[in-house]
Amino acid sequence: MVIGLVVLGIVLLLVLILVGIYNSLVRARNQVKNAWAQIDVQLKRRFDLIPNLVETVKGYMKHERETLEAVTKARNLAQQVASSGAGERAKAEGELGAALSRLIAVAEQYPDLKANQNFLALQEELTSTENKISFSRQFYNDSVLKFNNQIQMFPSNMVAGMFGFTAAEFFETKAEEERRAPKVSFT
Fold first, then answer.
1. CATH class given for the domain over 20-179
2. What is the pLDDT of residues 17-41, one digit of tens each?
3. Cystine design at 136: which of 30, 38, 57, 64 (Cβ 3.0–4.6 Å)?
4. Alpha helices in the chain (DSSP H)
């Protein structure tokens, strides 16, 4: 009788440990999904700002059509890969960020545009949004790291394997333009 109770107690303890590990993995996976959704919110905000910025700049920059088209093209590409994985999405977002940087750099050559209140307000909104995107990416990658560590460490790796948990993909910058230090010129 005593041996039966001890065995039952051990089995019950193992079941409780299994449930605890499983719930912890689900919580971490949901945290990764939430972090990804936060990136989406900020990217949507940026996508909504870009057409307004381009329209404001168009009136001043008649000769910079190429730059404006590059921004529009990069924005459309980023929207097309919105449902893709983190790697493909990071590449498209990197290209969009580079195109926006070129647009802002070209805009610096137009004193009237730099003084335009609409442009200044849009530029400030875009800067704020870029900062929020950066924080969201960092939070996402932190969540991915925690989740991936959990599914790869013992004993939770055994539970992860039994229930089909797979590693999440980091949001990494692959665009060379984003990895280079920006050029600063005061001429």
1. mainly alpha
2. 999 999 999 999 999 999 999 988 8
3. 38
4. 2-58, 65-80, 86-107, 111-115, 117-152, 156-162, 176-179
